[in-house]
From TrEMBL:
SUPFAM superfamilies: Ferredoxin reductase-like, C-terminal NADP-linked domain, Riboflavin synthase domain-like
GO molecular function: ferredoxin-NADP+ reductase activity
Catalytic activity: 2 reduced [2Fe-2S]-[ferredoxin] + NADP(+) + H(+) = 2 oxidized [2Fe-2S]-[ferredoxin] + NADPH
Pfam families, sorted: NAD_binding_1
Official protein name in the record: ferredoxin--NADP(+) reductase
Amino acid sequence: DRTAEKKKEAPKLALPDAQIVTEVTHWTDRLFSFRVTRPASLRFRSGEFVMIGLMGDPDPKTGKVKPLLRAYSIASPSWDEELEFYSIKVQDGPLTSRLQHIQPGDEIILRPKPVGTLVHDALLPGKRLWLFATGTGIAPFASLLRDPQTFEDYDEVILTHTCREVGELTYGAELIKTIQSDELLAELIGPENLAKLRYYPTTTREESPKMGRITDLMRSGEVFADLGVPALTPETDRAMVCGNLAFNLEIKELLEGYGLEEGANSDPKHYVVEKAFLD
Ligand code: A2P
């Protein structure tokens, strides 16, 4: 009969809010990224996050299974037809111990309700935009850096990324390379806009051209000397911060020291902060 036929045609998705994994890339033994189908109705602002995950294990008492969800920044730009995520792999992490094994064709749960503060709407107009990331905190910036508005709104856009080891910089380094060399992106963003992009990667536990925590390099003035820009001021500079908790707190204090104030969607100011997800 016809209903049965129809059912056969459309693949039955096992999970609620299911999306299909289309691509998985393992960057290091601690980091991977993946792409999934995008719900047709999902609109988001570059820099926002959604809850994603898998079904959890059955509750030992009741046998019930509940979704195991975590907040993940969308790493892809809002014009992309798929969604990209960048994740840590924690061997005993409730979600990522399992999520790291996903393969193209697998299903994940994606709650289509994007939110977050790392958005242009939460910042007042300015001349120079600083994107400060550690580890997987680069994910929301991977979205913002592929959004033309990021370049249209500022004269200069500086991405700093601090990781323990050199291999952990690869995802970001590849992203920057793609932004600067991909014809489609270049056309979309505009060559004059691409010239505004500066990239400042640093490592803390393995030798690389620039070593040290970005916070220390700010305090010493080294990052400003390297880039040939003055220290941040509320008159010209805006900042978005995404990293581990200790980093977020430390850089917040630094930014406040420069006179910048924290903004929100409802109250745009000079900088915004969000915690990078750590399973
Ligand atoms: P460090 O190696 O000195 O701890 P993680 O992988 O633990 O999330 O760390 C990512 C990067 O963030 C590491 O390079 C780490 O440096 C750095 N980091 C950790 N805490 C701070 C902090 N309070 N301020 C600046 N950078 C930090």
